[in-house]
């Protein structure tokens, strides 16, 4: 597979055909529009053309309202769906037809209004409950709350902390005046609730005395009637609000059949937003519209028929090397390599003039993942999960990529598990022991066992790492030769290869002249020369040390990184056997399977993520570091965008 070749597109269309042309382009989904502002400014067209208006903000507002309406229905009238179910499908033309949008917007506005009323009811219910809670301590007081006293006497409701002794308060109050009295109404763990009666002319002094004990006037102003009457009124109000709220909720439930209509309208508006965003990049005159963008070269013939249909003036050209950083990148994949898009996109897309890493990475990523998991049982679970998901939910784009990666990883895990003899660790052996089978029953044949052959697995992991790194170097040499940098290939990758061959010959004691490993010496000289050939003066001396350090530590560290393959294989196998052993202690199949399910679920989840992360690290840091040129920008064509529906051709 490869990076799809792109062409720059310039196009002029008659304004009267703009809408139909954009409709055709969004159906095709293969043209990415780019800004024209830079080309318009300073040209002979400046002042004659202006940016097109699309009403983007209005569409976004509509989309938000529709999504909110769908959310309201899902909240109050959820629709039960199977655990794994595919999105409903709709024809592309239906998503480009906005004839039913006004009705959907009216429905969305209605739902929004009902929910707003529910929120106001909830706020009022909260206020009424707060009133009841505040009035409850005064319920036994048979005195209207608006009573402020008589012509000569003042009556004040207030509270004092329950930690304060009322006898102390009354004693202090008697020192101020004999014409004041506190009447306890009720008390709780927090406060005393009191009625103060005193002469009006002495109210200031009395209040000053009481404040020293933390006396606070009760917040019951504005209420008329007794506390009990106000509580009854609040309870009646709550009943009325509850009935009104129930009616509002029922009104929403009655509209639950409209959920599909709202979802479809949301996807219609989402498509209008995509079109408006593209339209914002266009410039035009009174009767002409100008467009510029990128398109796959392989689609030129197909698009030419559309442009000719609408009598457009258009041209395409290959991007200039100076434009490569701006050229969008699209990868062409097959069923095997498409799953690796998930890995590539998490790191970075390749530069337009780089190389597609997916087919070069796929064999290694899948192999390493299988080696790290290495269990037939886990592999079968992954395969089953991927196949069921692909059949039931019919995934597309990112979800499909994940399912495909899970499938290939599961197949590799099963194969490597067969080579190591692992089936949920040693579960069969433990089950045989519980059932009283002969010793050795359930032991599966294996090529090697990670527990018994850990050293061989470690050496094998490093050998795979050496192959992996050298493959990356081969790819880089090919890229250098294509760019004409043959000298760079010789003095960098070539020098390292000569050095590696020299090390092998030295270990095998082949090619030594008078005890001197000639090939190794030649390789070291080439490495030193390659690392210092661009330096001058004193810089050559410092670059010698830098080259030696980077070459020795770099290669040693890179190869040592591949020991994680052995480590993860060993860790997964040991943890699986530990859970199996714990489960078998009770010598009971029921107990064994309970512990088996819990333990292996945890081990599987840990390995599923851990193996992916460590495999990703080997690809992105070790492998890509040898040849990969990143920094690509994803191709984002004008296309139909949906959230709730999948599109099908007519």
How would you portray this structure in words?
This protein is α+β, with helices and mostly antiparallel strands and 650 residues long. The protein has 21 helices and 17 strands. It has helices at residues 18-28, 37-40, 56-76, 92-95, 101-135, 166-176, 203-211, 227-253, 259-279, 300-309, 341-347, 358-373, 376-392, 397-420, 427-434, 454-483, 486-507, 518-532, 539-561, 563-584, 589-627, and strands spanning 6-14, 32-33, 50-51, 89-91, 153-161, 180-187, 191-199, 216-217, 283-284, 288-296, 313-317, 328-329, 349-350, 512-513, 516-517, 630-634, 646-648. The strands form 5 sheets. Strands 1, 2, 3, 9, 10 and 11 form a 6-stranded antiparallel β-sheet that branches. Strand 9 (283-284) and strand 10 (288-296) form a beta hairpin. The protein starts with 5 loop residues before the first strand and ends with a strand.
Give the helix/strand class.
alpha+beta
Specify the helix fraction band: 55-70%
| Global shape | extended
Q: Ranges with pLDDT <50 over ≥5 residues?
A: none
Rg over CA atoms: 39 Å
First-last Cα distance: 30 Å
- What is the count of DSSP helices, taking H or I runs of 4+ residues? 21
Q: What's the overall average pLDDT, rounded?
A: 87
> How is the main sheet built?
6 strands, antiparallel
Strand content bin: 5-15%
Q: What is the total tally of β strands?
A: 17
Give a concise summary.
The protein has 650 residues and is α+β, with helices and mostly antiparallel strands. It has helices at residues 18-28, 37-40, 56-76, 92-95, 101-135, 166-176, 203-211, 227-253, 259-279, 300-309, 341-347, 358-373, 376-392, 397-420, 427-434, 454-483, 486-507, 518-532, 539-561, 563-584, 589-627; strands at residues 6-14, 32-33, 50-51, 89-91, 153-161, 180-187, 191-199, 216-217, 283-284, 288-296, 313-317, 328-329, 349-350, 512-513, 516-517, 630-634, 646-648.
């Amino acid at each position: 597979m490869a990076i799809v070749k792109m062409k720059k597109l310039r196009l002029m269309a008659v304004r009267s055909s703009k809408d139909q042309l954009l409709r055709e382009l969004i159906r095709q989904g293969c043209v990415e529009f780019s800004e024209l502002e830079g080309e318009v400014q300073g040209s002979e067209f400046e002042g004659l053309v202006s940016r097109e208006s699309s009403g983007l903000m209005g569409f976004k507002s509509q989309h938000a309202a529709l999504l909110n309406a769908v959310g309201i229905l899902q909240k109050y009238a959820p629709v039960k769906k199977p655990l794994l179910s595919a999105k409903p499908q709709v024809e592309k033309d239906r998503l480009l037809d906005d004839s039913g949008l006004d009705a959907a917007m009216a429905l969305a506005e209605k739902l929004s209004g009902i929910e707003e009323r529910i929120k106001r009811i909830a706020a009022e219910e909260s206020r009424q409950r707060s009133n009841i809670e505040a009035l409850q301590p005064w319920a036994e007081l048979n005195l209207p709350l608006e009573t402020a006293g008589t012509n000569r006497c003042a009556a004040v409701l207030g509270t004092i902390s329950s930690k304060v002794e009322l006898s102390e308060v009354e004693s202090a109050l008697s020192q101020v005046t004999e014409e004041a009295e506190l009447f306890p109404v009720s008390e709780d763990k927090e406060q005393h609730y009191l009625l103060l009666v005193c002469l009006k002319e002495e109210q200031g002094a009395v209040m000053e005395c009481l404040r020293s004990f933390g006396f606070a006037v009760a917040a019951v102003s504005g209420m008329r009637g007794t506390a009990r009457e106000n509580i009854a009124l609040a309870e009646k109000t709550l009943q009325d609000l509850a009935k009104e709220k129930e009616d509002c909720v029922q009104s929403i439930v009655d509209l639950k059949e409209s959920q599909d209509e709202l979802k479809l309208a949301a996807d219609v508006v989402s498509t209008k937003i995509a079109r408006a965003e593209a339209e914002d990049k266009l410039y035009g005159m009174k009767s002409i519209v100008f467009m510029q963008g990128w398109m796959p070269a392989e689609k030129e013939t197909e698009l030419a028929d559309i442009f000719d249909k609408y009598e457009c003036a258009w041209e395409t050209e290959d991007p200039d090397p100076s434009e490569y950083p701006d050229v969008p990148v699209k990868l062409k994949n097959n069923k095997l390599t498409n799953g690796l898009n998930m890995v590539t996109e998490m790191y970075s897309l390749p530069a337009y003039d780089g190389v597609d890493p997916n087919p070069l990475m796929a064999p290694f990523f899948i192999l390493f993942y299988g080696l790290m998991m290495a269990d037939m049982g886990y592999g079968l679970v992954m395969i089953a999960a991927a196949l069921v998901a692909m059949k039931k939910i019919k995934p597309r784009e990112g979800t499909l990529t994940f399912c495909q990666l899970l499938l290939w990883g599961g197949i590799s895990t099963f194969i490597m598990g067969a080579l190591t003899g692992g089936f949920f660790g040693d579960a069969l052996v433990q089950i045989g022991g519980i059932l009283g089978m002969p010793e050795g029953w359930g032991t599966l044949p294996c090529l090697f066992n990670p527990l018994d052959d850990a050293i061989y697995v470690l050496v094998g992991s490093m050998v795979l790492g050496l192959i992996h790194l050298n493959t990356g170097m081969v790819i880089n040499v090919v890229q250098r030769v294509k760019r004409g940098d043959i000298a760079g290939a010789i003095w960098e990758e070539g020098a390292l290869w000569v050095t590696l061959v020299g090390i092998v010959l030295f270990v095998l004691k082949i090619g030594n002249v008078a005890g001197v490993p000639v090939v190794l010496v030649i390789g070291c000289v080439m490495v030193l020369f390659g690392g210092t050939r661009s330096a001058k003066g004193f810089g050559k001396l410092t670059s010698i040390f830098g080259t030696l350090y980077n070459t020795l530590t770099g290669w040693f560290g890179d190869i040592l990184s591949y020991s994680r393959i052995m480590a993860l294989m060993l860790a997964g196998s040991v943890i699986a056997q530990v859970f199996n052993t714990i489960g078998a202690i009770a010598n009971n199949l029921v107990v064994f399977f309970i512990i088996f399910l819990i333990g292996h679920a945890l081990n599987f989840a840990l390995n599923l993520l851990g193996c992916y992360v460590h495999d990703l690290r080997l690809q992105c840091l070790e492998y890509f570091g040898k040849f990969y040129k990143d920094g690509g920008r994803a191709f984002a064509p004008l296309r139909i965008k949906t959230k709730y529906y999948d599109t099908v051709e007519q």
